[in-house]
Amino acid sequence: MIGTFPRIPSGCAISGMMSKKGRRMNGEAVIKSIALMHDRSNGLGGGFAAYGIYPDFKNHYAFHILYSSKQNRIDTETYLKDKFIVDRCEPIPTRNVDNITDPPIIWRYFLLVDGKSLYDNAGQPVDERDYVVEAVMYINNCLDGAFVISSGKNMGAFKGVGYPEDIGRFFCLEDYEAYIWTSHGRFPTNTPGWWGGAHPFCLLDWSVVHNGEISSYGINKRYLEMFNYRCELQTDTEVVAYFVDLLHRKQGIPLELTCKILAAPFWQEIDRMEPEQRAVYTAIRQVYGSALLNGPFSFIIANSRAMIGLNDRIKLRPMTVGIKDDMVYMASEESAIREICPDLDEVWTAEAGEPVIAELEEGVEV
Amino acid sequence: MSVYLPAEFNVQIDHTLCRRCRRCVAECGFGTLSFKGDKVVADHKKCVACQRCVSTCPEAAINVVKNPLAYKENHHWTPEHIKNLHKQAATGGMLLTGGGNDKVYKSYFDHMVLDACQVTNPSIDPLREPMELRTYLGSKPDSLEFRYSENGEYKLKTKLNPQVKLDTPIVFSAMSYGAISLNAHKALASAAKECGILYNTGEGGLHKELYCYGENTIVQVASGRFGVNQEYLNRAAVVEIKCGQGAKPGIGGHLPGEKVNREVSQTRMIPEGSDAISPAPHHDIYSIEDLAQLIYAIKEATGYEKPVSVKIAAVHNVAAIASGIARAGADIIYLDGFRGGTGAAPTIIRDNVGIPIEIALAAVDDRLRKEGIRNKVSIIASGGIRSSADMAKAIALGADAVAVGTAALIAMGCRLCQKCYTGSCSWGIATQRPELVRRLNPDKAAQCLINMIRGWSLELKEILGALGVNAVESLRGSRERLRGIGLNETELNILGIKPAGR
């Protein structure tokens, strides 16, 4: 299914919303918000990430998988059963929508990892999440006609070819309740018409929606490959999901500094810093130069406890942030926020290279 | 036995323009011109086409042309082969040459093109936006650790290995004092300081007058160990172990005793007038573990405060060798391709040994990435880098910086006559003859070098802007931004690039 498509540059619209108190809302609002920016997409891709949607399976890895054929599904399920305890598997409910044609077979799986599997050939313990990442990489790269679109706990991605509002209705998102919703409308300049190529891109509980193009993709990809991430999708956005996984989850770099690696300050700024901060940022630029994301972008990156807005360091893409009570909104246009929350407490334009990080309040369990 | 070889060039003097000032007679380092009777006459056989007389004649009365003398056409026995055989028949020696390999091997730089942004991602105007070329050479860790401090800021926990800053990703290649003049060295050193980059002493030691440029100096430890002492090592920003040179892989060097004057003798720490012989291998490096010992001996001697570079020639197995060097503890690998220059080398070696830098660089960068050790070393690529375009392509293939030798010499006036080994350089560069050396004004030559580095840097910024990135690290190793034209599939595969149109 993958590996044969050329890389697809794209424009886009993004919108995200989060309750810092962990209140869950259905998908109506986020669909309304992204629908307002209809003209920023061209009907060739739309998608959503939702957090908190599977409270009954919150300790399970929820795999959303696209298949080209029934045989591909059977082959992949054989692999899944070998690697995981499959507690439940089912087709993801969809409804007929006029503009959505030729969808793939879409299933979801609630998986547990048997502790006995978590040893490598040498008998050394393996981190459970590394084990899951490896399985995702294997399915996406080595199994024909199967593509894992999300693999986190208590979250999921819903995406495909079409306008985002149509994709939202196709997946019956009004039936899901989430405390974080992110969404994407895509304007690729060419397309293979492939559902897996739509946003968000997800790995474990990370999801990324992206407006823009990563001009440094070539080196970002080669850098990630050194750490065994395989970027075979040829879409620039996937590198962001892998970077947050590598830098934050695996290397333990705080979220704020992870963002500062991806959109690093300019040397002229670093040279003016106090010595200790200068040392931090000089080292970041020296060591993580290949992880610098260069080119126009605005991202909304999310995980189970946070939603992060990030712009490229010369702000070549738009991003507005709004706050109302416990709600945080981020979108390509202010209008998309006002559409669903006209009366905001605060609203501002995110600055170049400055991450906006919204986190669940302390003590909130989800 | 005498050699009846025809002249390579003809010196044409327009006697109607010539005002008999005899300047050309004095300017020619090779004794081609003399004043006989009432006019300047040329001994054409001595002319090397260095263009010194042409450039300095106040009346523009001189021209040098290729001798049109015809050999019977023969695609196998070219005039060069015939001439070389005659020379060898007469002398029984190895034929020497200077400069870099000038044969018609494929230049891969000329078969690669760069990308640019159109519409979907904006290009960036370097006149309006910051455009960053700053580069640090040195070994980097795979990750950093931070700690959260009382005042709410993150502090750096990891201690990095020494890093040397370049304001633009260029260094001057290794050219020794002895091979080139002190004035040339002064120009390179002061230009490096002005540009915030590095120059390289080569294997000829460091003249005391250049100690003040230590922060911008790479000092070499070569097989002859000329001029190596504690102070020499500690003056430098980087210490380089020279294992090989692109122009003459696998062989040593020979500076004839005539060039070893008092100053050269003191700098190299050898007797005046004695030949300076660099053995082919280091006599304490016969294996990779020996190299590791020398790397750590140098690190001990310099308190682990300076990156140690290892320079090797690009040869067939360069990727595996580079991997060994990285694992042996080097901080920088300096790769020199077969187009790299030399002050003197056997022609047969220069023209037939080694591989192109583009290929070697791609293979090394790939190998180090596959082994997950690319961060451990910086890569400097050299050997025929002619322009900022070659530099940008080398960086896209994976170089951290490029080294320029021949280009720097040309900026100082060199016309690439390739007679460096004669010591008669009319431009005062590759010579120790005082009357020739003083022709090269170090300040003016430095300004020429500064101009060149500035020009290349501006062009590199323009290229980055067109690529839609504003930092050189976003081009480094980004082979996605290169396409091949006229390359076969194997070549594309080795270079790691797609053909144009894909």
What does this entry look like structurally?
Residues 1-9 of chain A have low confidence and may be disordered. Chain A contains ten helices and 18 strands. Chain A has a domain at 2-207 and 314-359: Aminohydrolase, N-terminal nucleophile (Ntn) domain (Glutamine Phosphoribosylpyrophosphate, subunit 1, domain 1), CATH 3.60.20. Chain A is an alpha+beta fold. Chain A has a seven-stranded antiparallel sheet with strand order 8-3-10-1-16-15-17. In chain A, strands 11-12-13-14-18 form a five-stranded antiparallel sheet. Chain B has 502 residues and is α/β, with parallel strands linked by helices. Chain B has an eight-stranded parallel beta barrel with strand order 11-12-13-14-17-18-20-21, surrounded by five helices. The mean pLDDT of chain B is 95. Classes of the chains: A alpha+beta (366), B alpha/beta (502). At the A-B interface, helix 5 and helix 9 of A face strand 9 of B.
Per-chain topology:
The complex is a heterodimer of chains A (366) and B (502).
Chain A lengths: L9 E10 L5 E2 L1 H9 L9 E6 L9 E7 L2 H14 L1 E7 L13 E8 L15 H15 L3 E5 L4 E6 L3 H7 L6 E2 L1 E9 L12 E3 L2 E7 L4 H10 L11 H13 L4 H8 L4 H4 L4 H13 L9 E7 L2 E6 L8 E5 L2 E5 L2 H5 L7 E4 L6 E4 L7
Antiparallel strand pairs in A: 1-10, 1-16, 2-9, 3-8, 3-10, 4-6, 4-7, 5-6, 11-12, 12-13, 13-14, 14-18, 15-16, 15-17
Helix pairs in contact in A: 1-4, 5-6, 6-7
Chain B lengths: L8 E5 L9 H5 L5 E4 L2 E4 L9 H5 L5 E5 L12 H13 L4 E2 L14 E3 L20 E3 L8 E3 L5 E3 L7 E3 L3 E5 L7 H14 L2 E3 L16 E5 L8 H6 L2 E5 L10 E3 L6 H7 L7 E3 L9 H14 L6 E6 L4 H10 L4 E5 L8 E2 H6 L4 H14 L7 E5 L5 H10 L3 E4 L1 H6 L22 H4 L4 H26 L14 E3 L4 H7 L2 E2 L3
Parallel strand pairs in B: 11-12, 11-21, 12-13, 13-14, 14-17, 17-18, 18-20, 20-21, 22-23
Antiparallel strand pairs in B: 1-4, 2-3, 5-19, 6-22, 7-10, 8-9, 15-16
Helix pairs in contact in B: 4-14, 8-10, 11-14
What's the Cα radius of gyration of chain B?
24 Å
Please name the two chains that share the biggest interface, counting residues whose Cβ lies under 8 Å from a Cβ on the partner chain: A-B, 48 and 47 residues
Distance between the termini of chain B: 61 Å
Strand order of the largest sheet of chain B: 11-12-13-14-17-18-20-21
Largest sheet strand order of chain A: 8-3-10-1-16-15-17
Give the biggest sheet of chain A.
7 strands, antiparallel
Distance between the termini of chain A: 35 Å
What do the pLDDT scores of chain A average to? 92
Strand content of chain B: 15-25%
Unreliable stretches of chain A: 1-9
Q: How many DSSP H or I helices of chain B? A: 15
Oligomer: heterodimer
- CATH topology value of one domain in chain A: Glutamine Phosphoribosylpyrophosphate, subunit 1, domain 1
In percent, how helical is the residue content of chain B?
Answer: 25-40%
User: What would the principal axes of the Cα set say about the shape of chain B?
Assistant: globular
